[in-house]
Amino acid sequence: MVPFHLKTWIAVQIISVSLASIDDKIRSLTSTVTRENFRLEGHLIESVIVDSQITCSHYCVKNTRCLSINYKKFQTDLKGRCELNFAGLSNDLDNKYLIPTKEFVFSQIRCRKEDETRCPNMDRISSDFSLEFPVRNGNGVVYNKNMDRVLTKFTLCLWMKTQSQGTVFSYAWQNRMNEIIIMNSPELQLYVGGQHTPRAVISVRDGEWHHVCATWRNTDGQNKIFIDGKLEENGTGLQAGHIIEKGGVVVLGQEQDSLGGGFQDNQALVGKIANLNLWDTILPLKEIVEMSKNCFSRKGNVLSWEQFRSDIRGTVKVHEPSLCRAP
């Protein structure tokens, strides 16, 4: 006869294994939003031909019924098939409709409200907002203190809309106030370590949405500025050998004359910003061009747009969904 305490121990182990199995299912569900070589079947809203997977995701975001997509890139050209689905992983823990299918990529875009507790991490949805800086003063700023990597090269991309000069992005560290700056003064310029690119005729002050990317590397000081996917500035010698330290303060909408402060009204931005991201590498031209085609892109591995919701001050307005509109 099995002793009572042994029966109890066996029962506890069985329950623990069962709970672990359930937990593994939930963890596998919530740890990813993309499955390569898989396709969700039986839940199609519509199928369209698009120029990229990002564009396919954008179609889903705009369709309130769409929860996920299947995307297949054609072998003969740059386009692909985009299938919008009215269901996703959160609707079925067993994933019985997620079928292995070569050349397809399944991506979860959003979840139904009733499924939010077991919904995959929806980076694209949490980034669907824009910030407006309505008046030229030192009160409307956005802070971010998540710069946790030393940079010897970077790519900084964002969408912006303005008709005036002002500071878009400012990063300061200790007593170095101009480590990274994107500024309209009145032409668009990149500052690194207190030095700036030549005053080229690059203007985005026409009141329209523009995609802006700036890249820099310290090996030779190479710097580039892309406007709407086109290379507009290309130089070398900008702070070669410089290192951008981590742990500083990022401010949107103002230039820092002291760490996290020292704002002046004439340096303030009047306009709108959306989907700003920072990477610790130089992104390929192909990715920059693709990101310039719509207002949604993959998030940066140093700074990502959703982080800028946590410390918004003064007169800055949040618009959700985003007001950004690609040309």
Automatic annotation (TrEMBL):
Keyword Lyase attributed: no
Pfam families attached to this UniProt entry: PAN_1 (PF00024), Pentaxin (PF00354)
SMART domains xrefs: PTX
Domain Pentraxin (PTX): 127-324
PROSITE patterns: PTX_2 (PS51828)
Keyword annotations of the record: Calcium, Disulfide bond, Glycoprotein, Metal-binding, Signal
Acetylation listed as a keyword: no
Listed GO MF terms: metal ion binding
Swiss-Prot/TrEMBL cofactor(s): Ca(2+)
Signal peptide span: 1-20
PANTHER family in UniProt: LAMININ G DOMAIN-CONTAINING PROTEIN (PTHR19277:SF161), PENTRAXIN (PTHR19277)
The protein's name: Pentraxin (PTX) domain-containing protein
